[in-house]
């Protein structure tokens, strides 16, 4: 099966199961077609292979008990309009147009329903049990009515597509908002004009504590931050707007005097074309981490001092023992075995103390 045929079948499937609010308008077109073209039956169909699904029918020959979805048409248009004045006198189409449960149709006139991407998806046709023909004006009218049918169907498809996309966007936005709000960090989106676009609840609380003002979407950032804080914000904002990430730690003093350490970042945000459209200002509370780190440094400093003191206190008796050993060597040419072992152990202890002192200095 060629790609062209597959594309046409996909186009038909788009409209075949279309839920539309324009049933009354399409039914009116079918009724109007039969009335204006003086035919007892008008049908709006969609083609699915050889089988045509009748969506709407109008005229005096419409009967509820007739299975119109059994309508089958094997005719080839070869153009936008097909007219068969008398199927019995046209060998090419004789017996090709039938409707289950009705008399054979002698006259047929149909206009294509062609989608905007060029696929013939169906027809608007009028039929009669008697031979007939259409004037040039009637032919033009049939084409116009078929065009109107296509406009209505494609409009409804576009509306449904927009609705689906809107619902998908809303769902994605809800998920993103959930992540945005559930984050422990503070997030603020600022446009390149420095206008507040969006923020989460933690950023709102941070701004209240740090600057004593509530955040409001649509306001310029200068409405909330003033003085040196605003000057610093502008500098970092412009760096991020140039495409570079800014990251630093800062101790912030709240309005109540409390001091808290924050990890601050300014990140550029890009659109699908690679253009920077806004900057994300983010703040993560690192106060506990900072305090723990300083506590570890203080503890390490204390341990070094303790080790230094202890090493010096231990070295005093070691130095005394080694000194006594030197005196005894002067008195005795050969030291007893026990004293030699004591001297060796004392020297080893002295080397360990020196190693400790080298580590803490």
What report would you give on this structure?
- The chain is α+β, with helices and mostly antiparallel strands and 361 residues long.
- It has helices at 3-16, 23-36, 136-182, 201-211, 227-241, 287-331, 337-360; strands spanning 41-48, 51-58, 72-73, 81-84, 97-98, 107-114, 120-128, 186-191, 196-199, 246-253, 259-270, 276-285.
- It has three domains: 3-163, Beta-Lactamase, CATH 3.30.450.40; 184-285, Beta-Lactamase (2-Layer Sandwich); 295-360.
- It starts with a helix and ends with a helix.
- A hairpin with a 5-residue loop joins strand 6 (107-114) and strand 7.
- The model is unreliable at 64-75 (pLDDT under 50).
- Helix 2 (23-36) runs antiparallel to helix 3 (136-182) and helix 6 (287-331) packs antiparallel against helix 7 (337-360).
């Amino acid at each position: 099966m060629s790609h062209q045929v597959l594309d046409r079948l996909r186009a038909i499937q788009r409209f075949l199961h279309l839920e539309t609010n324009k049933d009354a308008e399409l039914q009116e077109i079918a009724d109007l077609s039969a009335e204006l073209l003086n035919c007892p039956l008008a049908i709006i169909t969609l083609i699915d292979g050889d089988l045509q699904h009748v969506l709407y029918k109008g005229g005096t020959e419409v009967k509820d008990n007739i299975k119109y979805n059994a309508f089958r048409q094997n005719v080839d248009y070869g153009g936008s309009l097909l007219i068969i004045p008398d199927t019995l006198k046209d060998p090419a189409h004789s017996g090709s147009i039938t409707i289950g449960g009705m008399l054979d149709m002698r006259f047929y006139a149909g206009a294509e329903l062609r989608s905007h991407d060029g696929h013939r998806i169906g027809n608007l046709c009028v039929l009669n049990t008697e031979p007939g023909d259409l004037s040039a004006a009637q032919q033009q009218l049939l084409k116009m009515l078929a065009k109107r049918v296509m406009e209505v169907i494609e409009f409804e498809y576009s509306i449904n597509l927009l609705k689906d996309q809107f619902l998908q966007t809303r769902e994605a936005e809800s998920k993103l908002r959930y992540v945005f709000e559930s984050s422990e960090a503070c997030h603020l989106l600022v446009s390149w004009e420095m206008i507040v676009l969006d923020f989460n609840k933690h950023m709102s609380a941070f701004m209240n504590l740090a600057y004593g003002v509530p955040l409001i979407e649509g306001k310029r950032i200068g409405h909330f931050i003033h003085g040196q804080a605003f000057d610093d914000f502008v500098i970092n904002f412009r760096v991020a707007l140039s495409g570079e990430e800014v990251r630093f730690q800062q101790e912030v003093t709240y309005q109540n005097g409390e001091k808290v350490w924050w990890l601050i970042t300014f990140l550029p945000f890009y659109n699908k074309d690679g253009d920077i459209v806004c900057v994300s200002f983010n703040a993560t509370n690192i106060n506990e981490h900072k305090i723990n780190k300083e506590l570890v440094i203080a503890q390490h400093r204390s341990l070094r001092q303790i080790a230094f003191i202890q090493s010096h206190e231990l070295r005093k008796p070691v130095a005394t023992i080694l000194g006594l050993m030197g005196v005894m060597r002067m008195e005795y040419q050969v030291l007893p075995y026990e004293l030699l072992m004591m001297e060796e152990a004392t020297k080893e202890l002295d080397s360990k103390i020196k190693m400790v002192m080298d580590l803490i200095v």
